[in-house]
Design a protein that fits this description.
There is one protein chain. This protein is 31% helix and 11% strand. With 429 residues, the protein is of the alpha/beta class. The chain has a single domain (6-109, 121-396), classed as Alpha-Beta Barrel (TIM Barrel). The strands form three sheets. Strands 3, 4, 5, 6, 9, 10 and 11 form a seven-stranded mixed β-sheet that branches. The chain has a two-stranded antiparallel ribbon with strand order 1-2. Strands 7-8 form a two-stranded parallel sheet. Helix 3 crosses helix 8 (219-237) and helix 8 crosses helix 9 (253-261). The longest helix has 19 residues, at 219-237. The radius of gyration is 20 Å and the shape is globular.
Length: 429
């Protein structure tokens, strides 16, 4: 076993953030700040405390001022003329298409005090009605299941987590890829962890900048949450995602149009492990185990004989990651296939970058973990059917402009600087 190391500057701890339905994403997930001492960064270590010592990563430190402050609802960065121009174009679309959709009022996905016509559901608001198919057919439907039968759509929300080495080593040893819905602030806090995810072959998707409930945000904030997370993932990993998941599943037609303008496909879920709940309101590890069993029982009862599940799991903390390790063998027993969402959807080109491909379903289940050549016009790609300059801006992000200071859509790519070497799998604590 070989452990690569790199001398990096450690940083002061920044404020954490509240995550899915009340768990605290920032418990072990602080990161970039003002450097004041150095340490050796070892991506192979399984020691939780060692993994979560903050560090400074120069490729990110050099562009940090081009992004919103971490863990606050994002807004347009002053002087970012390209983002401002895109948002102005988007606003014209919003006014004509969903101008009657109101901003919701709630906290961390709790809208219990907000008055809304649940029966009519004019906004196709998933939080209240679980609506995934807008009545306006020009607004694409959400994805919540896979077309492939007896298949577990495998992914994690809320990463990258600073202490995820044991989980990622476990997946590597099992030749298992997953879809990672990354929070922009976590990507900026823990860029090397984000880079490892891409280097290991996992699919990159967006989980917003600050993990705020999207329907509570202004148009500018919702746009910025997606726009800057996309730019952060591009800067660190070298790829521009075309998929996203709203925190708490909180999406309505206004948010769908904003995401569609940026050519992002909304991925929800069919089943929820509620893994984040352990330790809250007397929820125990046994409760989470039973939640997994409920999904297994559905499979045994034939519910997934004609399609596949997309199951909600979290990279939020060591408990949530340990549950997946503990349950992995049971998933394999109850589902015929376990695949990342891109492969389950046969998305062979999941990123804006045309040189990045992904294995389709048949390739993946046959053991091929990297994409092959994709014929022109194959259409095997996520992305909204809506059109707009937001998608064009994503394409421009694939090729830096060469200016001394990168614009918001042409961030300096930090990918390729560090090679991660896997270590033996171990149980998380």
């Amino acid at each position: 076993m070989f452990a690569a190391s790199l001398l990096l500057a450690a940083t002061s701890v920044s404020a954490g953030a509240i995550g899915c339905s009340g768990h605290h994403i920032g418990t072990r997930n602080h990161g970039m700040g003002n450097p004041h001492y150095t340490r050796a960064y070892d991506p192979a270590t399984l020691d939780v405390a060692a993994q979560c010592v903050p560090y400074n990563y120069e490729p990110v430190a050099s562009i940090i001022n081009d992004f919103p402050p971490n863990w606050a609802p994002a807004t347009l960065v002053a002087g970012d003329d390209e983002a401002a121009a895109l948002f102005q174009e988007l606003n014209q679309t919003l006014a004509s298409k969903v101008g009657n959709v109101s901003i919701k009022v709630g906290t961390m996905g709790d809208f219990s005090g907000y008055q809304y016509d649940n029966a009519a559901d004019p906004d196709c608001w998933w939080t209240r009605s679980r609506c995934t198919q807008p009545k306006d057919q020009t607004i694409p439907a959400d994805i919540r299941q896979l077309p492939e039968p007896n298949t577990w759509g495998f992914g994690y929300d809320d990463g990258p987590n600073c202490s995820h080495n044991a989980l990622y080593n476990f997946m590597a040893e099992n030749k298992q890829l997953a879809t990672m819905f990354f929070i922009g602030s976590n990507v900026m806090n823990w860029p090397l962890q984000a880079k490892r995810a891409k280097d290991d072959g996992h699919e990159m998707c967006i989980h917003t900048w600050s993990h705020s409930a999207m329907t509570t945000l202004t148009n500018e904030q919702a746009f910025a949450e997606l726009y800057y997370t996309r730019a952060a993932i591009k800067a660190v990993t070298g790829v521009t995602p075309k998929c996203w998941r709203p925190p708490y599943g909180d999406v309505d037609n206004r948010i769908r149009v904003i995401a569609g303008f940026l050519n992002l496909t909304n991925i929800l879920w069919s089943d929820d492990t509620f893994d984040w709940q352990e330790g809250t309101q007397n929820v125990t590890a046994e409760t989470i185990k039973n939640n997994y069993q409920k999904v297994f029982d559905k499979a045994k009862n034939g519910e997934y004989n004609t399609h596949g599940a997309i199951v909600l799991n979290h990279e939020s903390n060591n408990r949530t990651m340990q549950h997946m390790i503990d349950q992995y063998a049971q998933i394999k027993q109850n589902f015929k296939y376990i695949v990342p969402i891109a492969s389950g959807m046969n998305w062979t080109t999941p990123y804006v970058e045309t040189n990045e491909t992904y294995p389709d379903f048949n390739q993946y289940i046959s053991g091929q973990l990297v994409g092959g050549p994709v014929s022109s016009g194959s259409g095997n790609s996520p992305g909204s059917t809506m059109t707009g300059s937001g998608a064009a801006a994503a394409s421009s992000a694939a090729a830096p402009s060469g200016s001394a200071k990168p614009s918001s859509a042409t961030r300096t790519t930090a990918a390729g600087i560090l090679v991660f070497v896997g270590a033996a799998a171990a149980m998380l604590i």
